[in-house]
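Fold Annotation — chain and its backbone
Encoding — discrete vocabulary of local shapes
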Amino acid sequence: MMEDRGMNSKDHRKNKKLCLVEKSKNVNPKHPLLKHPRRPVALEEYLDKRDQGFYVSMESDAMQEIGIRKNDLVVANANHPLENGSIIVAVMNGETLVRQYFKNDHGEYLSPSNVAYPTIEINENNCNICGVVTKIIHTLY
């Protein structure tokens, strides 16, 4: 299950900007990086302005073997060309999924990188591919 972090999210409106560097009791206040003004980073900077970009929070470990971990922010583009092997964001039965898209002579499939999750055969009636993943913002802690 994934939490939508799109433009209508209340959380997004409250926390539009993230601080690049935050002071804490564990940080040396004389460190050169902290002497410069901190530039807020808007999440919109990660979206492609020319296309329809959106982002979702990864809520599972289904793609961990290729480096998309639980709690990562997944940035996708609705207008990016879909190719065999693309990492995509899709909605299936009301659930938002991040999976790798494959097409062959037998059909179209969404495949996780984690073998604990099943590969899903898709068609135009049971799945809506929303966009191709273009960036991942990792959560470290």
Remarks:
- The chain has a mean pLDDT of 78.
- The radius of gyration is 18 Å.
- Residues 3-137 form a domain with the Umud Fragment, subunit A fold (CATH 2.10.109.10).
- The beta strands are 3-4, 17-19, 40-42, 53-57, 73-77, 87-92, 95-104, 107-111, 120-122, 128-137.
